[in-house]
Design a protein that fits this description.
- By secondary structure, this protein is of the alpha+beta class.
- The chain is 24% helix and 17% strand.
- It has two domains: 53 residues, no CATH class; 80 residues, Alpha-Beta Plaits (2-Layer Sandwich).
- About 12% of the residues have low confidence.
- This is WCX domain-containing protein.
- Pfam families: WCX (PF25583).
C-alpha cells in the first residue's frame, strides 16, 4: 500500500514565516518531502482535486517522486556484473525493468524512465557494479558525475 499526500503551494508568505497552504494557483501541483515538514495544521479551507487529475499519468515514467514532464521517458540500457546483477534482478530499479541479455558474467537490463536527478542517484548507488550502455545522453551525464567525483577525491 502506498500513501500519497498532494500539497499545492500558495505563493504568498507573510512576514518571516513561510507557510504552505493547500490551494491551486495556476493548477501547479507540487510534491513535498514529508520527512522535511516540521509542522502541519488543519484549516477550514477546502480543496477539490480536479476530476481530470490522473496520478498514474502524473508519475508515468518516473523513477521516484520527481515528476518532470519536461524530461522525456527514455529507454535506458544498464549492464550489471555478477554478483550485483542478481540484486538488481531481485530488486528492480523500476517496474519497467526487464532482462534483455545475460551471459556468464553479467545481466543487461532495459528500463523506460525519465532520467531525473533521483534516477541518477540510484544509478550512482550501483557504484562500479553497473554501467549505462544507452542512451548516450544518460551515459555522458553519468560520466560527468563520476568525473566530478574523481576531481573531489584527487584533492
Amino acid at each position: 500500500m502506498c500513501w500519497l499526500v498532494v500539497l499545492i503551494t500558495l505563493n504568498a508568505t507573510k512576514g518571516k514565516t513561510k507557510r504552505m497552504v493547500a490551494t491551486r494557483p495556476a493548477d501547479d501541483y507540487r510534491l513535498y518531502a514529508l520527512d522535511r515538514v516540521l509542522d502541519m495544521a488543519l484549516t477550514d479551507k477546502h480543496f477539490k482535486m480536479k476530476k481530470s487529475f490522473d496520478i498514474e499519468e502524473y508519475f508515468e515514467g518516473c523513477y521516484g517522486i520527481i515528476a518532470n514532464k519536461n524530461i522525456p521517458i527514455e529507454r535506458i540500457v544498464l549492464k550489471a556484473w555478477k554478483p550485483h546483477c542478481y540484486y538488481l534482478e531481485s530488486l528492480p530499479l523500476h517496474h519497467s525493468q526487464r532482462i534483455i541479455a545475460q551471459d556468464d558474467e553479467s545481466i543487461t537490463f532495459e528500463l523506460n524512465v525519465r532520467p531525473t536527478f533521483d534516477f541518477y542517484q540510484a544509478l550512482l548507488a550501483q557504484t562500479d557494479m553497473a554501467e549505462v550502455l544507452e542512451p548516450e545522453s544518460v551515459r555522458q551525464e553519468m560520466k560527468r558525475f563520476t568525473e566530478n567525483m574523481l576531481y573531489h577525491y584527487k584533492k
